[in-house]
Every structure is written in structure tokens, then in C-alpha cells.
Amino acid sequence: MAQHVTTLHPERATAGGCSASGCGSKPDKLAHLPEAIRAKVKDHPCFSEEAHHHYARMHVAVAPACNIQCHYCNRKYDCSNESRPGVVSELLTPEQAVKKTLAVAATIPQMTVLGIAGPGDPLANPERTLATFRELSAKAPDIKLCVSTNGLALPELVDAICEHNIDHVTITINSIDPEIGAQIHPWIFWKNRRIKGIKAARILIEQQQKGLEMLAERGVLVKVNSVMIPGVNDQHLKEVSRVVKAKGAFLHNVMPLIAEPEHGTFYGLMGQRGPSHDELQALQDACAGDMAMMRHCRQCRADAVGMLGEDRGAEFTQDKIDTMEIDYAAAMERRAAVHAEIEAKRQAQRAAPPQTPNQAFVSVASIPRRRAELPSRSASRPLRIAVASSGGGLINQHFGHAREFLVYEADEQQVRFVGTRRVEAYCSGGDTCGEAETALAGTLRALDGCEAVLCSKIGIEPWDALEAAGIAPNGEHAMEPIEDAVAAVYAELSANGQPGERIADAALSA
Amino acid sequence: METLNCNRDRTMAYQITDGCVNCWACEPLCPSQAIQAAKPHFVIDAAQCTECVGDYAEPQCASICPIEGAILDALGAPVNPPGSLTGIPPQRIAEAMAEIRAR
Q1: A278 is in which domain, residue-wise?
Q2: Is residue A357 part of a domain?
Q3: pLDDT in tens, A73-107
Q4: Taking CB atoms and an 8 Å cutoff, what residues of chain B touch A190?
Q5: Percent of chain A with pLDDT over 90
Q6: Computed over its alpha carbons, how large is the radius of gyration of chain B?
Q7: What is the pLDDT of residue A81?
Q8: Closest approach of chain A CAs to the CA of B12, in angstroms?
Q9: Which GO biological process categories is it annotated with (chain A) (predicted)?
Q10: What is the pLDDT of residue A506?
Q11: Least CB-CB distance to B58: which of A76, A193, A435?
Q12: Single residue among A322, A343, A358 that ends a domain in this structure
């Protein structure tokens, strides 16, 4: 397995054959992966971009303790309006977590994955974390188990992880250089002492790299998360990407730093900025030459429940779960039926020819290589097109209901997913959370740089506001597969003169 | 001062303040099982706490605690004073709080 993992070639997905020639069928973005890995990730919403349109995940907050400090984290924080890693409302015992997982799996049959991600470090709470996994692997064998960790305690727990059938592990690796690491992680707790500075960063990095190698050797699928911190590790992450890929990580997820003064974190209070959408995308593209990149991460809470981008945690509080009667055997049957239905739908979507006359659009993971191979006749720049979707890979959400937009980049050769834009403030309520602003103004800002926004329906007020902002609203592709619709709109925009000029006119007259 | 001295004379013990966020990190580390989960926050049983003397070079609870000021030594002084763990200068926190409140 380790060999398979270390010899991945993401570029294969783009090199010739069906996927590059636009034969009408959609390429499987995981096509370059060995079959065993594809089977593991194909219905995992966090590991497969395509799967996240169809399947849901949940985190249980059983792991409160942490063994390191990160400058983007504040352990005092607990706000139900916040959605970001490390934040959680209700700490669970392993028994409560198991019951909650069964309740969610019975209620949301699309749920395929149970992760433990905090609010501290799951492996700094090995008893609580492993007890939860042990129970679940016995009681809910149809649920995939994952864990994410800072890696400090990973090497000593690799065997326990394997014993509990956890076959997806995420390691957060922000640097492989202790001098850079020390600027991100001020201390670690190691061998009964608090260690600070470069010495601490060196130990953390050694443990992370060792843990990664051990997992890869054992065939456990490893994703690496990195937080992009402009001026600190942004350039360095390209090297991180190269190294972790060589050691067997199969996916790299570069996430933007979230830092606001009201979060009370070092970076938030000291004025460290996060990256812009463009900076993040440029770094992801730079890393993509070496590594399969994840771009659909929603940086969710340690107790998130539901599809990525949604949080149904409020439906599953302890008092509500206590009143639920769960027949898991029946739930498992229903889940299997729902999954089969989803798979049939996915199969049909993949096989269906695009609904547009232009068949040259395909969706691939890595664009730069393709560009180099193309004749230089094409001078038009790629266009970013935002999409409102509530799942299923379709344009099926009302503009006003969207809490996030998926952003695609289209050019004459292809459509590719480049990221998501949240349209609610990280904090939308309370007197200490964020500034008051209208939701629409925030949405316009989030959609900055997009030429058009596709949705199932849209009201007059946002329509006018979008037009005034130079973003073409478009409700004509409702219920169509996202990538086909984006390709069609790109074609319309291109045919109607220079993209980026008065595209709104084109959309209006279309 | 008198009270503090009195405390010290009575026992060698650390204390947890209401800055505690109940993260459980300290509880399994205590060599004397002196730490208990409680409401509204964890507590150290002064009769059991040994300040880790004889077990560890450094007091374990205070060495893993992520919250500045949450653990006091026998003299009532924070083992991890403001700024010592997060690197955030205390003055900056005060300024930021004032800025946020002024909004």
C-alpha cells in the first residue's frame, strides 16, 4: 500500500484519454488513485470532492485536552454561532458520543463518516477517543472512522489506530522547518514538561513526519492539513506539500488562516491577516503540481453534523438524543438503500453527456500542466462562476438560502472546482461576535472576482445588487449538473463578447 | 499577605481559578489524583496536592494548562502569568477588548 501511495500521479487524470478529450463522459477525479484507495475515499465527503455533494459527515467532541498551542487557536472559545475548528458547544463522554453517532446515522442516512477532531487534540485524549472508536466499530460497522491530529502523540498511537479500524487520518502539518514552526506553535507538552520555541517545533515536526511514515507503511490513508499564514509559512507550504507527498500522504488540504481579534487568538489579536481568495488559490495551484489538493474543505467545527457546509448539530443536542429511540439494525438497512440510490444517481450523472452543445469541457484536478500543452491560440482568461447548491452535484438552491457558494473556474478547455465562499459571517449573533452588516453586502463581498452566480431562483433585490456589482445572476440552469451548467454559462459569456465587461446584459437577454 | 502565608504554612497546594475552561488536560497527569472535574470548573484537592514534588521536576497541571492565570501556586501567584503561554502582550488584550466593546 505504501508504494501505491507514494507513486500517485495526480496529473494522470488530465493526461490524454477520455478525461482530456471531452468524449462526453465525466472523468472520475480519483481515477489516478489505486483501486483500494478509491474504494476508501469514494463516499468520504472530506477526502473526495465529488463525494461531498452526496454524503454527510459528523464530528463528535470527545477530546477536550490538547498537548500543543497553536497561534490560531484560543482554548477559551465556545460560541454556538462560530464555525471553525476547535470550537464546540457540548463536550461528550464516549458513551454520549456513540449514542449521538447512532442517532445521526439513523436520521441522516447520507452520513458515511464519523470523525474525532477535537476540540483539543484527539490523540492527547487517547482513552476517550479510542473508547469511542471501539464502541462504534462494533455497533455501526457501516460508518467510516477518522481522526485528525496535530501529530505529536501519533507515533505511539499508530498501532492503536490500526486496531480500531480507523483508516483515514488527518495530520495538521504547518511546517517542516522548526524556525517557521516556532512562529506558529509557541509550546508543546512533551515528556511531562512544557517545551517552548524552536526546540518544541523541532520535536513536533519530527513526530508528525514519523507518524505520517508509520501510517503510510501500514496502508492508512493520510490527508495533510496546513493552515496558510501569509508571511509566515505561505511560501514554505510548497515544500511541505512535496515532502508529505513523498512520505505517503495522498491529499493536501491548504486552508486559509481564520484570525479575527474577537477570537482572542494570538494571530487575531496581533493583526496577522489571513490570505485572500486569490492568494489561497495561487498557493493551492502551486502545490497541485506535486500533490492532489483538497479545495472543498469547510473548516468545520469539532461537533459539526451534516453535509459539508451545513451544520445540523442543533438537532442532536443531548436532551434531544435522550428522547430518541434508535433501531440501528433497521437504520443500517435504510442507509444501505439510500447509499445505493446515491451511487446509482452518481453513476448516471457521470455517464450522462453534458447538456450543452460544447462537449469540450471536462473537470480535472490540475490545470497548469494542461495549459502548457495547449496551443497558444487561446488568450481568453478563465472565468470564475459561483454556484448555489444544496447537494447532489446540482444547481438546486435559492440564492437567498445559500450559506455558501461553490466557486468554479472555467476556460475554453475545462471547468474546475476552486473553492467555497461562505456567506454568513463566522459569527452572526451576540454582541461580541462580529460587526453588524447586511447579509447581502457580505455576500457581494464574498463573491468578489466571480463573473456570474448560478442558482435555482433569485429575488429582485439581490438580482439588482449583483448586477450593480458586475456579477451576472443566472437562474436558468436550475436542477442541472453543476459542471455542465458552468460550462454552458462560460460559453454564453464568451459568445456575448468579452467576459468581464457587461456580462449581466448577456445573462439578462439570454 | 497574612492569609497567603497562612495558606502556605497549612499546605503545599496549587489552586484552579475560574479562568479554567474544563479541558481535562491536567486531570490524568496529576500523580496524586488531586484534580477533580467539578462545576463550574476543575478543582485541586489541597490536602492531596504535592506540587508534584518527588514525582516530576515541574508541576504537571501547570505545565499542560493552556490558560494563563488558571492555576495559582501556593502563594496565590499565577504559575503561567499573562502573556507567558500565548505570547500575546497583556496590554494588547486589554486594547483589543476595548476596541471590540467600542463597536
Answers
A1: 2-322
A2: no
A3: 988 865 555 566 666 667 899 999 999 999 999 99
A4: none
A5: 50
A6: 15
A7: 54
A8: 20
A9: molybdopterin cofactor biosynthetic process
A10: 43
A11: A193
A12: A322
**Is the Cβ pair B24, A193 closer than 8 Å?**
no
Q: Report which of A377, A419, A157, A413 is spatially closest to residue A281, judged by C-alpha positions.
A: A419
Is the confidence at residue A199, as pLDDT, over 60? yes
Residue A11 CA to its chain's centroid (Å): 21
Do A316 and A378 share a structural domain?
no
What DSSP assignment string belongs to A58-89? Answer: EE---B---SEE-TT--TT---TT--STT--S
Q: What is the identity of the amino acid at A315?
A: E
Cβ contact A432–B92 (<8 Å): no
CA angle A339, A161, A111 (to 5 degrees): 20
Q: Does A65 sit within 8 Å of B63, measured CB to CB? A: no
A367 part of a folded domain: no
pTM of the model: 0.79
Name the nearest CA neighbour of A308 among A113, A19, A162: A113
Is the CB of A262 less than 8 angstroms away from the CB of B100? yes
- CA nearest neighbour of A198 among A175, A180, A210: A180
| Pairing mode of beta strands A415-422, A404-410 | antiparallel
What domains sit in chain B, N to C, each tagged with a CATH number?
2-101 (3.30.70.20)
Total tally of structural domains belonging to chain A: 2
> What is the rounded CA–CA span in Å between residue A452 and residue A407?
10
Please check whether residue A71 lies inside any domain of the structure. yes
Kindly report, residue by residue over A301-354, the tens digit of the pLDDT.
Answer: 778 888 887 788 888 888 898 888 889 999 999 999 999 999 898 888 777 655
What does the block give as the cell for A126? 487517547
Q: What's the rounded mean pLDDT across residues A368-377?
A: 38
Q: In what order do the strands lie in the sheet with A68-69?
A: A68-69, A187-190, A193-196
